[in-house]
Amino acid sequence: MGTADDAILANKLGQLYQEIATTLEDYLHAHAGDMEKQDRDLLGERVSGLLDFSDKFFSLSDRIAFAGSDTAFNGVTAAAQSAKEAIRHIAAVNKVINITADVITLAASILTQNGAAVVEAVRSIIGDVKS
Amino acid sequence: MLAFCIGCLPGCVPLKEVNLFAEDSRESLGKMTSAPYGYASYCYDSTYINKTRFNALADLDGDCRDALLFDSLLRTEYETLAAYFAALGQLSGAKTRFDFSPVAGAIQPGTYGGFTITSVESKAVNALAATATALLTTGYKHKKIKGLLTRFHDTLDLAITFVGLHANNLKNKVLNMQIRLKERTDLMVGDAQDDREKWALAYIYKQKSKELAEVIDSYDARCLALQKIRQGHQKLVDNVEDLGSATLKKEMLGLARDIIYISNKAN
Fold first, then answer.
1. Segments forming the whole domain that contains residue B45
2. Nearest residue on chain A to B182, judged by CA atoms?
3. Other CB atoms within 10 A of residue A129 CB
4. CB of A82 within 8 Å of any CB in chain B?
5. Helices B39-49 and B119-191 meet at what angle, rounded to 10?
6. Tens of pLDDT along B36-80?
7. Domain ranges, ordered by start, for chain A
8. Residue B8 Cα to chain centre, angstroms
9. pLDDT block averages, 10 residues each, chain A of length 131
10. How crowded is the C-beta side of B110, counted as CA atoms within 13 Å?
11. ipTM of the predicted structure?
12. CB contact under 8 A, A83 and B144
């Protein structure tokens, strides 16, 4: 049985004890008037005892889950990292596209002998390469 | 062909619903990192509600260091999950596009040496660049998202199971505390000397019980939101070969709406 299954089982046992406790509590309330104080107190303590066990199972479930969560959350971090790399790849391709566009503009400026545009296009290419 | 491609551009963004689901999941998980009532609050409450016998207030002081550590661990777990959905949202979003518009912008109408670029040709290049941006980005994203979903689904599912278990465990411990409070108050009311004492006990009980009921409701909503997020991720994996299907789009929109609605109730 895996870690998650153990934690789920502990949680289910906690819920089972909780249900038994509430059933006993309902019984106690329904018959409290017909009972001796001593019996009422005893059943009250039993409800409390069952709830103690229920709490213990929930705490056990938490401890098992925390103990086993490392692998799962490392995996989630790796998944986020993988998505970010894909996003970075798109950003890198966009950079290449920008440089290509500047190179085209530079060629057009040289062909039209537009000195100011040549200077601007060269500046832009340098800027794109550095960024 | 070009007209067809340009015409289908708005429909060529099948990841919009994936993006919406991822963004809503991220927002919902982000809110869960700052729950006002966590293990530490439970620990402080349980030190007096769960204690049957005491002689002085000092007897009700408990050691809540473990609870503080649990809260801190859980915050990190929710942050990790939120970071994953943020990345998935970014990858499926409109902002992550191969942008060919600079190339199109570089082709202006005019005469270049012996070549003349007419405005019709310039517009055609612009349109092609827009098409390439949409189609290439969609194709790339599909491929990457497919790999991401299939490779990491099991681990994500397990991680959501763990945080869901913690939420369910804490909710049930608070419920146990509420049952104890009722049980104890009832016994005290039975032993009360007069109506004044009974009323004082009832007043205290009602106040605390209402507070605990709100915590229980909030954790119920949290468990439900986590279940919807898990369900949504499973649907994406099940339909990974056809992320643009109309049925999936509808289901993802429904889940995204549910997640936001439920997570507003959870906080």
1. 11-95+152-266
2. A25
3. 11
4. yes
5. 10
6. 899 999 999 998 888 877 888 888 888 898 899 999 999 999 999
7. 3-130
8. 32
9. 83 95 89 84 88 94 89 88 86 81 77 72 72 62
10. 12
11. 0.79
12. yes
